[in-house]
Amino acid sequence: MSSPFIFLLVVLLHSPAIPASASRCTATVFGRTFAKCVGLPTQGATLAWTYHARNATLDLAFSGSFISPSGWVAWGLNPDSPSMTGARVVAAFSDPSSGGLILLPFFLDPSVKLQQSPLLSRPFGPHLLSSSAALRHAAAVSAGAGVHIFATLKLSPNHTRLHHVWNRGLYVQGYSPTIHPTSPADLASRATIDIVSTATEAAGPSPSSEVALRSTHAALNAASWGILLPAGVAVARYLRQPLGPSWFFLHAAVQIAGYLMGAAGFAIGIVMGARSEGVEYGLHRGLGVAAVVGGGLQSAALLLRPKTTNKYRKYWKSYHHLVGYGSMVVGVVNVFQGFDVMGLGRSYWKLAYCLGLSTVVGVCVALEVNSWVVFCRRAASEDDDDDEGRRRLETKRAGKENT
């Protein structure tokens, strides 16, 4: 049982890297020369442009890089605020049919949930006159490959202060980009730039307190819902006979400790959600609420636990088992959902958790097999005793008849 606590320590010490400064830019992009350029504050991205005041058009080149061969890179504008919600973007990724680079427009309206439904391509808008994408020094999309996204836009007169957003992700399902990683740097990929004065208002990376909240939230929930509560269920199911009456106190102690840790992790998640405007994980939040409510009902059930002689005891046991197992399953599923939300779906942190959980599951399987072996032996012994009793009774009856 030591690996879950090693995992807890590792996650608490894990802090995503935050870039200290913007990338260096160049005004010459893919053989085209632009009037101005800036280095964007995250992901090593840059932006170059030429603004034609006479007809209010903007020629623009965004430069970024892929983080996986099956990933995507996107740039866009938000007409209202420097946030992802409400932005119109174009995303570059490998065409599933031809393998070549493709660029598609998307609209991130407030109803879009990248985890619940595929993100479908929608027109950028009439102000996008043309767009294209090209790889930088690479024949195909690969991890680390650079990409340029070119766009020509028609702007409103004297509207030169633009809210830029950009990001990149690991996977594309069909022609639908999936959710990007959610490290502080990824969530800060936005900036407001005046294309005439080159004044830049960058959204700074999340402060260290936000990083600590994320790490603590992940550690508490993984250790409680993912490890301690399942272990408490195992205590109740398999240690009644070895421990005697003390099994109940151990079971209650583990479950109460696990629930308090999980409730603290849930509270931190509520705080993080309130601070993350425009970022919503409906499925993760819903599963968290269900787990906390189920755990609360279990705690309340302890206060209403009937005596063993009470006729309602069997109904209470059915309720306790149903809600308990349901809350445990929901909690474990939500831990995996949390890894995906944090962009750690294929990480060593998830692997460490899986090793801890598999240890608990393996012990439970071994104890379950042992309990069935004991049950079968006991049943066979009782059958033998019954057979012996019947033989003795028949012998006794035969003796009386002979006399």
Automatic annotation (TrEMBL):
InterPro entries noted in UniProt: AIR12_DOMON, Cyt_b561/ferric_Rdtase_TM, DOMON_domain, UCP037471
Domain DOMON: 43-169
Cellular location(s): Membrane
Protein name in the entry: Cytochrome b561 and DOMON domain-containing protein
Transmembrane segments annotated in the record for this chain: 218-236, 248-274, 286-304, 316-336, 348-369
Alphabetized Pfam families for the sequence: DUF568
Keyword Cell division: no
Annotated region (Disordered), positions in chain: 382-403
Keywords: Electron transport, Membrane, Signal, Transmembrane, Transmembrane helix, Transport
Domain Cytochrome b561: 181-376
Signal peptide: 1-22
GO cellular component: membrane
Source species, domain of life: Eukaryota
Required cofactor names: heme b
Bias kind Basic and acidic residues: ranges: 388-403
Cofactor descriptive note: Binds 2 heme b groups non-covalently.
Entry annotated with the keyword DNA damage: no
